[in-house]
């Protein structure tokens, strides 16, 4: 398959250098707004031609969710592979991020945490693993705008085994704090001013500075922005780049290093089902900011 043949949202790439292969994960149900069937993955040597789909997760009969299987992110850690993914809980109909684990990058992934590691009473999504300079694991995630109006990006410490949160979540910023984000006019909430947070992902630039990608909307068009931690740590404070990095109806991105050394961003675009496709864009760190290579924004 070619990249333009793959319907996927929330793409996440795990490079495995010793294999010379890239593993592509994401929200792969044809209708991701309905019942969840699981997650598939694709494998490539060049980010253009892909083998797959390979089924990497199918829920067991006693799984805590059966709807909205979203945004799997897969990390190699301690000889195993850990998947952070969002699901809608059966018990309270709220979204939460849980951790799955496998011995191989193509799974099969099985439940690792005892349900979501996000707060039970919160509608939370898009959990993303981050290890601080001491090697301690954290999870960045979104407290959903549909529950609180002004969506938040939060962080919580995790235990060393990634099975549960070990502290209370802290709010890193609210969507309305970014100068580029505008209120989202939702058909479900037409009379309220809502600000969306989606898909936080933390990474370090070549300078060592800590950046965060996250998605929201500009005039009801999906867009991707960047924030930088003034302290160099996950607690921030976080300063937003004034303009969106990508504003052409694409977002929910992550960053990885290609085998040729380039720093690549992957996003899905456009932001409508069933037309979502993975895009791969080269980025660079420039004067304390992240930009598309050769450009300032799109």
Automatic annotation (TrEMBL):
Protein keywords: Carbohydrate metabolism, Glycosidase, Hydrolase, Polysaccharide degradation, Xylan degradation
Similarity comment text for this entry: Belongs to the glycosyl hydrolase 43 family.
Keyword Hydrolase tagged: yes
Ion transport is among the record's keywords: no
Protein name: Family 43 glycosylhydrolase
Classification via CDD domains: GH43_Bt1873-like
Gene3D superfamilies associated with the record: Glycosyl hydrolase domain, family 43 (2.115.10.20)
Region forming the signal peptide: none
